[in-house]
């Protein structure tokens, strides 16, 4: 049905910005152009923090119109961050606005989970690390605020599934994003009836799960007319942005590699053929999330470049390159702990929070952007190194190469610090791994490439940089 030069649209929504890209695989290489970029930032209203989904939808449609002006498009797929969701009522209207996972409504909820289900049992059922941002604490916080919520809600969708629904009218949840919720059984690869029943969450709200690469259907006629896209189908890629990014990592088969997906959040881990759910994994707070082809992403999730993004916002959004150059020229070994709760929430007070935290640790930090930036990046490097060391120990794995993708792969200071902290070679790139993985899963879905060709295509495509530990 589609030729080898079939073109695909990747819609990637991140917690700080979105993009619409158009790409194709030709001659064993992937090429794509980002046609439209747009900002995304959670909007405070009262005491709550929400995503402006309608504005994101407007931007997406604008990007689709740009793409349609460049000729026929075979397919569209959407990726977003995990854990956040929308609920629908019986009239297929969303119930309230979509909360951001950084909303403070979940504070304290995670500490009450044991009252309903012991943590060991909850981990055994889901294999997910305990974080206040998870969908389970979010739903419980929502129910606490509106006790009749679950009697009104008839449908639950993760955010990429919501966009797919708006595009083609098909209700389905894709595995990789569902696996971030703490409501999913990674062994059975289905919603966890055990967890849903224990917490009084109706199973009927949750739609069928589909594999990465599932063809959902054609665009709705109104969307096709609005965008000019005729004959375009919607494909669910690996809808969790990290799952798409890891799909596109140009690793060699058999290589003892780990990955770091470095964006607003920092996810560090390894790829396995099956989940690892053990007491040691629970104690290390390691999570099991789904990848493509039934693989498991065994990882730890910590705050990432969000901390630096909030600092830049506080400093008036200056160009980052001069700050990074000045930070790299410094000799300071100060590093913050990015896992501290006080760094988890947005606000222009982030630099002051960092200075106060350092002072409480007995360190007087110069308040200049370069000094603070260096402390943040060194802290991120130490944090991911600790995460990978725990994962290696629990999984009996030996990491000798680390593939870093996403925005952090552009920052030499961060990449070198990770190499030094882990004593492993760091391979940086591709930066736009999520977009690449999204496009390649779509290409494999319609037969342009074989499913096993995704990483070989990336090895032929990506421009990679290597960082060797200075201790060697």
From TrEMBL:
Belongs to the FGGY kinase family. GO terms for molecular function: ATP binding; rhamnulokinase activity. Residues 258-445 form the Carbohydrate kinase FGGY C-terminal domain. This is Rhamnulokinase. The keyword Transferase applies. InterPro entries: ATPase_NBD (IPR043129), Carb_kinase_FGGY (IPR000577), FGGY_C (IPR018485), FGGY_Carb_Kinase (IPR050406), FGGY_N (IPR018484), Rhamnulokinase (IPR013449). Pfam families: FGGY_C, FGGY_N. Keywords: ATP-binding, Kinase, Nucleotide-binding, Rhamnose metabolism, Transferase. The keyword Membrane does not apply. GO terms for biological process: rhamnose catabolic process. It comes from Acidiphilium rubrum. Residues 9-246 form the Carbohydrate kinase FGGY N-terminal domain. The lineage of its organism: Bacteria, Pseudomonadati, Pseudomonadota, Alphaproteobacteria, Acetobacterales.
